[in-house]
Amino acid sequence: MAPDGGHNGTEGWGQYLRYSLDSSKIRVNNSAYAGRSARTFTREGRFQRIIDEVKAGDWVVIEFGHNDGPGDPATDVKSRVDCPGIGNETCTAIFNNATEIVQTYTTYLRNASSIFLSLGAKVVISTSTPTNPYQTGNFTWTPRIYSWYSWYVVESLGGPAAGIYYVPHADYCVQALKLQGPQAAVAGYPMDNTHMAPKLADTFSQAFVLGLKCGTSPLQQYVVNATSRIEGPELGTCLPVNATLPI
C-alpha cells in the first residue's frame, strides 16, 4: 500500500487508487509507510497525524498484516510484532531501553477506527495483499489470521450501520493472480515474495476497487468504472464472501 513499496523498484498499491476514483470529488492522500505494523504505526504517531487532519465526511482506508506477526514482541528484533489475541491482551517488550506495553492487532485497529468514526469519518478496513501464492511452484494460498482479525474489528464496531466496512482485498488479489498465472506472479514479485512491481501493484489496486464495488460501502459511488467494467479475465468477478459478510 505504501509509496515506493519495499524500495528497489517496487511500489505500493495505494499509489494507483486515485486513478479509479472520481478526482473531482475524491482526493487520495496515501499516508501508508513501508515496513510498519499496526503497533509501529501507532507508536510512531502516524495514526495521530491522520487523526489531526481528518474531517467529517472523509474516508480512511486501513490495511495492515504483513509486519504484525506472528511472533513474540519480547524477542522481535524489529520491535513491530503485535501482542497475540483478539481482545485487550497486552505484552511487554523493551524498545529504546524502555518498557513498551504492546497491544493486540485488533486493539490498535479498533482504537484508531473508533476515533475516526467519532470525528465523522467513515472507515474501510482492508485485508493485506498476499505473498506470492506460486512461490512453491504450485498455486497455494491460505488467508492469514489478520484477515479474520480485520473483519472482527469491523463487526465489533458495528459494521456498515456504524460507518465501518470490510474489504477482503487479499481474496481479490489472489483471484487475480490465479487467473493471470505463475508468469505474472514471477514478474510481479521481482524482489521477494511480498513486495510488488508497479504493474502488479496496479492490479492489486484494481482488485481493491473490485472488492469495494462488490460490497456495500458508499465509497463505491466514487469509482469511475461500473462493476461490469472492472470484472473480467484478469481480475475475476465478485466473490461469494461479499454476500456472506457485513461489508
Topology (elements, then pairings):
Blueprint: H1 38-43, H2 46-53, E1 59-62, E2 90-95, E3 98-103, H3 105-118, E4 122-126, H4 145-156, E5 164-167, H5 169-180, H6 182-188, H7 198-214, H8 227-230, H9 241-244
Parallel strand pairs: 1-4, 4-5
Antiparallel strand pairs: 2-3
Family: Belongs to the 'GDSL' lipolytic enzyme family.
Pfam family, one: Lipase_GDSL
GO molecular function, one term: hydrolase activity, acting on ester bonds
What does this structure look like?
It is a single chain. With 247 residues, the chain is α/β, with parallel strands linked by helices. It has one domain (13-244): Rossmann fold (3-Layer(aba) Sandwich). It is 34% helix and 10% strand. The chain contains 9 helices and 5 strands, in the order H-H-E-E-E-H-E-H-E-H-H-H-H-H. It has helices at 38-43, 46-53, 105-118, 145-156, 169-180, 182-188, 198-214, 227-230, 241-244, and strands at 59-62, 90-95, 98-103, 122-126, 164-167. Strands 1-4-5 form a 3-stranded parallel sheet. It has a two-stranded antiparallel sheet with strand order 2-3. Helix 4 links the parallel strand 4 (122-126) and strand 5. The chain is globular, with a radius of gyration of 17 Å. The two termini are 20 Å apart. The model has no long low-confidence stretch (mean pLDDT 93).
